[in-house]
Design brief:
Radius of gyration: 17 Å
Number of helices: 2
Strand content: 35-45%
Structural class: mainly beta
Order of helices and strands: EHEEEEHEEEE
Length: 127
């Protein structure tokens, strides 16, 4: 009997970055007082809608962290957040009165009125 191995199917991207998001991350990193290697993105429980996005600077990559390298910047996704962020596009928007990072997340089911927290459902992985 021949040894048959199944072809590995391509892994979906956890996150993508728009040009504006990558440029803003790069801009902040180059202006930091101490060097940083990457932006760490995650989610935490809290807020009126149930969860909120987290962003911190880091110089460490954990064993189970998901590394997204795009457009000259490195984003580390916390392993506990991967299923909540799967397929998310990170953007940076500038409006008349505010500016900030925006997460276009297909797993988001609702958001609070203040825009600080969201309701997220983990992505369903196909077999």
């Amino acid at each position: 009997m021949a040894n048959v191995t199944a072809a590995a199917r391509p892994r979906p991207k956890v996150m993508t970055l728009t040009d504006a998001a990558a440029e803003r991350v790069r801009e902040i990193m180059t202006q930091a007082e101490t060097p940083v290697a990457a932006l760490r993105v995650g989610v935490k429980n809290g807020g009126c809608a149930g969860m909120s996005y987290t962003m911190d600077w880091t110089n460490e990559i954990g064993r189970f962290d998901e590394v997204v390298e795009a457009k000259g910047v490195k984003v580390i996704v916390d392993p506990k957040a991967v299923l909540f962020l799967l397929g998310t596009e990170m953007d940076f928007k500038v409006d008349k009165l505010s500016s900030g990072f925006v997460f276009n997340n297909p797993n988001q089911t609702s958001a609070c009125g203040c825009g600080e927290s969201v309701a997220l459902t983990p992505a369903k992985l196909e077999d």
